[in-house]
Amino acid sequence: MFIKNYQYLKPTVDCGDHIEIEDINRKDYAVNQYMNKVHIEGITKPTALLYAAGFSLHQMESRDITTVKDMFRGTVEPQRTSMLIRESTVYAMHRWIGSIENKENIVYASINSNTCASSMNSLYEAQRLLDDGICEEVIIIAEERTSFNTLRIFKEHRVPITCGDALAIVTLTKEPTQLEVVDTKWEYEYNNNPFLTTKSGYAKVNTKLDIDQIKPHGTGTAANNEAEIDLIEGRDSVYYKKDTGHTQGASALLELCMLIDDKAVVGDTLCVASGLGGFYGSCVLRKLDEA
User: Fold this and answer.
1) Mutual orientation of helices 251-261 and 118-131 as an angle, nearest 10°?
2) Fold held by 2-173
3) What pTM value is reported for the model?
4) Could you say which DSSP state residue 125 is in?
5) What is the mean pLDDT of residues 279-289?
6) Does the fold of domain 179-287 match that of domain 2-173?
């Protein structure tokens, strides 16, 4: 499948425990309004819309909460129930579809919520939708907003990472362009610790294609670095999380877009992602020479 167009916003402002997108009023969903204006002008072909996000809030987390202690700032915030509803993936997906012109041409829609591998899962799904003739184009919207719950979960489990906000939109088609995505893979491996990544898990998505370089998942944690050693195998590597933080649900798609804009990147690049609970995915970004 080929990349018809893409657009993204990456985090730029360091807030200590996370990185936010500069000059965006997050409360008024200005991120979404901005992306709609510059990217989606209406759908004219049978299209699948895939929404990718990080943590999909469990129904138990949507209970009526009167006060919640903010463990990062030592304050108590009143009534957070409305925030929890806004962050649910179902609400976000519905909001996106409602803002798209010619939405009657959306023939398929789904939500991918596999934490840090969510948008890689969307790329895997997109490949199959196009190959099976379900649609003529696929739009993937990958969105991540650092939330109280996300920060709380990582802090409670002592995961030493910095989170980041991000938004990326990619339109995929079967019509050839200079940007091709091939060999999408998606695998599952059960682990006792849902935060654990393994060499065997990454090995399942290590493509056999002759590639020029690799973009590892690259959490920067000791456990993940050890798990990715065999995957890298002396290949030239490209890392982005050191600059953006962990954008979780949007990370795979965001970093794919950044890779496209990286002028030093040429040829075939293996892009790898992993998600909490034992999920692993990969694809190869191929930059074709212009005719």
Assistant:
1) 80
2) Peroxisomal Thiolase; Chain A, domain 1 (3.40.47)
3) 0.86
4) H
5) 91
6) yes
Per residue, the 3-state secondary structure of the chain, as one string, reads CEEEEEEEECCCEECCCEEECCCCCHHHCHHHHHHHHHCCCCCCCCEEEEEECCCCCCHHHHCCCCEEEECCCCEEEECCHHHHHHCCHHHHHHHHHHCCCCHHHEEEEEEECCHHHHHHHHHHHHHHHHHCCCCCEEEEEEEECCCHHHHHHHHHCCCCCCEECEEEEEEEECCCCCEEEEEEEEEECCCCCCCCCCHHHHHCCCCCCCCCEEECCCCCCHHHHHHCHHHHCCCEECCCHHHHCECHHHHHHHHHHHHHHCCCCCCEEEEEEEECCCEEEEEEEEECCCC
Q: Phi and psi dihedrals of 138, rounded to 5?
A: -130, 130
pLDDT of 3-23, one tens digit each?
999 989 888 888 877 888 875
CB-CB neighbours of 241 under 10 Å: 20
- The position carrying tokens 């990286």 is 262
Only one residue has tokens 């980041």, namely 164
How do residues 207-240 score in pLDDT, each as one tens digit?
A: 888 889 999 998 877 778 888 888 888 888 999 9
Domain ranges of the chain: 2-173, 179-287
Distances from the Cα of 13 to the Cα of 25, 54, 102, 153, 247, angstroms: 13, 20, 35, 22, 13
* CATH number assigned to the domain covering 179-287: 3.40.47.10
Bridge partners of 70, per DSSP, are: 75
What is the model's pLDDT at position 274? 93
Give residue for tokens 């990147």: 265
Cross-strand pairs, 141: 51, 169
DSSP single-letter state for residue 246: B
